[in-house]
Amino acid sequence: MTFLEYSLNSPREGFVDITAQVRKAVRKSEVADGLAVVYCPHTTAGVTINENADPDVVSDLLLGLERAFPERTEYRHAEGNSTAHLKASAVGSSVTVIIENGNLVLGTWQGIYFCEFDGPRHRKFLVKIR
Ligand code: ZN
User: Fold this and answer.
1) Are residues 96 and 35 in contact, defined by beta-carbon separation less than 8 angstroms?
2) How far is the CA of 78 from the centre of ligand 1 (A)?
3) CA 56 to chain centre
4) Which of 26, 68, 89, 105 is the most buried (most CB within 10 A)?
5) CB neighbours (10 Å) of residue 14?
6) Helix, strand or coil for residue 91?
7) What are the tens digits of pLDDT across the range 35-56?
8) Ligand 1 centroid, distance to 89 Cα (angstroms)
9) Cα 21 to the chain's mean position, in Å?
10) Residue 50 parent element (H or E)
11) Ligand 1 centre and the CA of 49: distance in Å?
12) What is the layout of strands, in order, in the sheet containing 45-51?
């Protein structure tokens, strides 16, 4: 396997901090100078980087996404979870982080989040380190 796969049980809607798992993957890889790609292989969940110091930031991000992508009767997707698809595309499905001296280069307040918009589900995310 040329990438690592992690699984998690997600909340109904919310951000799960996966920074520690990615840091551990980088240390284990023994790559000193490179890149880490964190990828979400789902269409109603995503991955993003944002503040992990004040939990109110995540709560505000969810509120903002709710405002930006409200439920609409015009949606055609029969599964009925179009807002989750919209939010997933808005946050994106991957992030790339620089590795220097064997560590992730993240800002002081930054964390990597798995973003669930249509849970709870058994989900996975992938990490590729080079
Ligand atoms: Zn759907």
Assistant:
1) yes
2) 7
3) 17
4) 26
5) 16
6) helix
7) 999 999 999 999 999 999 999 9
8) 12
9) 12
10) strand 45-51
11) 24
12) 14-17, 110-116, 45-51
What does the block give as tokens for 98?
């620089």
Candidates 41, 42, 43; CA nearest to 83 is 43
Distance (angstroms) between ligand 1 centre and the Cα of 77 equals 7
Q: Is the pLDDT of residue 10 over 90?
A: yes
Range of the domain at 52: 4-129
pTM for the complete prediction? 0.96
Cα-based angle 99, 105, 110 (whole degrees, multiple of 5): 140
* Distance from the alpha carbon of residue 6 to the mean position of ligand 1, in angstroms: 23
Domain containing residue 71: CATH number: 2.60.120.460
For the segment 8-26, the average pLDDT, to the nearest whole number, is 97
DSSP 101: T
The DSSP code sequence of 77-104 is: -TTS-HHHHHHHHHH-SEEEEEEETTEE
Q: What is the whole-number distance in angstroms between the Cα of residue 93 and the centre of ligand 1?
A: 15
